[in-house]
Automatic annotation (TrEMBL), chain A:
Pfam families linked to this entry: DUF7314
Keyword check for Transmembrane helix: yes
TM region(s), chain numbering: 9-27, 47-74
Keywords carried by this UniProt record: Membrane, Transmembrane, Transmembrane helix
Name of this protein: DUF7314 domain-containing protein
Domain DUF7314: 1-87
InterPro entries: DUF7314
UniProtKB/TrEMBL annotation, chain B:
UniProt region (Disordered), positions on chain: 1-43
GO cellular component: membrane
Transmembrane segments: 90-110, 158-178, 190-214, 220-240
Residues annotated as signal peptide: none
Entry protein name: Cytochrome bc complex cytochrome b subunit
Organism name: Halonotius aquaticus
Subcellular location per the Swiss-Prot or TrEMBL entry: Membrane
GO MF terms, alphabetically ordered: electron transfer activity; metal ion binding; oxidoreductase activity
Amino acid sequence: MADEFIKGFGILTGAGLLWMTLAGWYQTPSFFMTNQLIAPPPEPGNVFDAISIFLIDVFLWTALLGAFAFWILIPAGKELAAAIEERGESS
Amino acid sequence: MSDTDDTNETRTDGGEPATDGGETGIVAPDDETPTWQERKTRKSGLSQLTYEYFERARREDQELREESDYVERDVLGFPTWPHEIIRNGAISLFFVGMILLISAALPPSLELPANPSSTPSIILPDWYLYWSFGLLKLNPLNPGLAVLDGSKLISDQLYGVLANVVVVGAVAFLPFLNKGSARRPVEQPFWAAIGAGGAFFAITIAAIAVQNLIPLPLALQLNIAFIGPVVLGVMTYALLKTLREGYMYGLNRRYYMLRPPK
């Protein structure tokens, strides 16, 4: 349980930090607006910008789905397996 | 009560409390300590309850240890140097590194310095007074009365001040209603729910103070500010009432009340 927590937490914070940095570069027209980190990105000028703008969504979904997988899906699957096994033993 | 019970007096609290940190708290079994077999033979009343309670706790602890893949060591603590210092130094260096990394990767834009001769469009107190400032901004809730031809009975300013009086008065009156004897929230779910709702209300009413900065319509903000805490309180109450069952609340409460007075 604790291992799953720190795995999900590590993915959430690590990918979240990378997302926040890239979104701060490309999706933040001003730090004094409410649309910072979520504004539409500009047209990429070179290949590095294109890769970075592509990676913004990759890191965002890695953070969300990683935490979801390790905090909810995998523990639920373990509980389910244990319940099925217990039912098999008792019958 | 038979004679054997008088000689074998049950100790429910483990004897002298060791609160000075001088003892390890580990007591080797001696002849006076009843074995689990002896405890098991007491089949009536509180002694049986005691046996079942501690046996269940012991068995659960044993199962947890068997399930765990951590290595058990006979170590009660670690010395400050080098273990704790190195660990704390690593944690401190990690956070210093994160501060440097983020400030290097995401330099915030520095705007022009504040102009002291012009009043800003949004005037705000310090952040810890936002809740009171939010209560002053409740003029959308000040009702107009039909008998007064739609005009308001009291001014918006007085309405906000009265809202502050109501909230501060409720907080001041709270200690007379509940003495705070509960040691954990499950013991008094109602008051825990009041506390959770109140803490959440402090946040939501503070958001009313900065309503201009929140991209939500004001009616929705007011609904969140006043209905949200009630919803959270009901959820807290239901959760704690549910937790009581698995927590063996009644049994723990009996043991708490069994302890000898100081």
